Amino acid sequence: MSVQIDQIFTAKAENIWQFLHTAGQGCYIPAYQRSYAWDDENVNRLIEDAISGLNHLIERPNAISFLGTVIAIHDTNNVTVKPVFQAEVAQRVMTLIDGQQRISTSVMMNVALHHHINTLLRRFEKLEDEPFEWIREQSERALAELWTTFALDQTTGNPHVNRYYPRVIRAFDDVWSKKGSQAIYQSPIARLIWTYINHADAKKTEDFAYRVADENGVSDPKHEPLVKVFRHIRGQLRAFTSKKKAEQFDFPNVQQVILKESFMKALWSFTPPNQSSVT
């Protein structure tokens, strides 16, 4: 019997944010996929594409930027998940056939951004003026949304932190479980996510200086490519928010965007006497 490819694979336009926000969805990297191999140059291109897309959105709200394809299979029976505790698996498993480098990098960006926002918030946590209240509210909303892109909340866990699953794990290196005695996160991407989940859940105030070393304190070669890229991502984030370095990026002027939106809202909400508003 012939196989109808179009019945197996369907193309769907979806941004990475939507993909990583899918409720209960875990991303699974099969064992035959190569290890994380992106470098700083790959990350810079992804950042440049994202910044270009943001600039287009200012003038054209419906603009899109193509960041590449992701091929994933919904493993309904968890046949690709090895090893596995069937009762502990994520609600929906998407096995990544292509695009795991891009997905892993996007998750790292969100982890780094979550930590960066938290760090910046501490600078004015005691200030109570209205602008700072607005910034806090927007930041807390962003933090909550970022968290769900790399951590799946299973509502319970023993110990408590095990209620959170890394959203991306790899076959044989990692095992999802709400039980601390069963959960294993040893692949580079899962280890990074899991280490940060523990850092954030414990509400630690020190910098998240991520480094993976072997028993002798030497950097683990298996993790080094990802650790190096994560450091680079954090450096780029610091540059975005630096008065001295921000100008080197063609980043949208956020203040002008906010002022423009506020002006337009005020303009459209104003109704002159004896005239109806235009919508």
UniProtKB/TrEMBL annotation:
InterPro entries: GmrSD_N. Pfam families: GmrSD_N (PF03235). Residues 18-145 form the GmrSD restriction endonucleases N-terminal domain. This is GmrSD restriction endonucleases N-terminal domain-containing protein.
